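To close the section, here is one more complete example, presented without commentary so you can practise reading it yourself. The ligand is iron/sulfur cluster.
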Amino acid sequence: MARDVLKVISSLPTVRPQPTTPDRIHLKDLSLEEIEAFITGLGKERYRARQIMKWIYQHGATSFAAMTTLAKDFRGRLEEVAVIEDPRMERVQTAKDGTKKVLFRLADGAAVESVLIPGKNHWTACLSTQVGCAMGCRFCLTGAMGFTRNLTPGEITGQMTRLRFATPEGERVRNIVLMGMGEPLANYDHTVKAVGNLLSDYGMGFSNRKITISTCGLAPMILRLGRDVSVNLAVSLNAPDDERRSYLMPVNRRYPLETLLKACREYPMPGRRMLTFEYILIRGFNDAPGDAVLLADLLKGIRCKLNLIAFNEFPGSPFRSPEETTVRSFQQILLDRGYTAILRASHGRDILAACGQLAGR
Ligand code: SF4
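Output:
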């Protein structure tokens, strides 16, 4: 390999946990600016980087041979020094309600899951950001697995490019939620870089209004995210007081409600956008009418909407789903106090594809 190329490669970020091709640069782990630096380091024009990104994200190219707008000898050169690698789609399960759960196999053998959720005229893709999760939320099957590793930027966007170019529904994905396996803000740099490529005009071209990052409440990272990108934020709240929230979600001991909600108040939301709070209703734990009143008081002054989700039971789960009537009266109390409170239907429960049920099995 020529010395100039080695120099360029060594200055680029190395984010692969277990590189399958250690001597080649993974282009999907790079931003446009980094691809430009790489390409100009090879002695080629800067605009070639934009062409390459379009091939990867807009035409689904997984090899340089497919990039017919590049000269043949340049494609050959790229083969020597770079690689485009996507997770392998190993299994697709379809639930009774049409939800699809996709198991992806990564280069090092680890597995993650993504979910395609049907809407009226479009689909929503729910992507993973980590293999497992270290946050240990008690209601979540992913949390019970423990943490294995962060996904690279290319492994995060790779779920979306595979869904778009290898499933019939992919063309009609309009929304992306980073709510699959893992805590996105605990894998901050890779998540933000992946989101950059999902948003880029030369990448997948999604609107920032159509991408939502979900967090269990890493308050300092919420503030940082607000400074770095402009996407929707969903905060998984699940209890109206610190005692119960700390029991359900250990992260609350580090960032209790006061700290978390202060960060939420400071999160910039352009236009008429609203922050989303997710509240999983668990029978006899956080679903009493008094809890709805506490919740309404807690969120006063925050421009937000609430997504109410009935707990999805999974094998061995310590909690139970709430009664439907309980959920409706909980919602009514919030509506009466002027909140937008939406009952979120659980999608794909029969194939363990619903919220908190992903385990990469
Ligand atoms: S709910 Fe999210 S943050 Fe909590 S354990 Fe599950 S994946 Fe991790």
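Once you have examined the tokens, check your reading against these statements. Residues 88-351 form a domain with the TIM Barrel fold (CATH 3.20.20.70). The chain has two domains: 3-83, 88-351.
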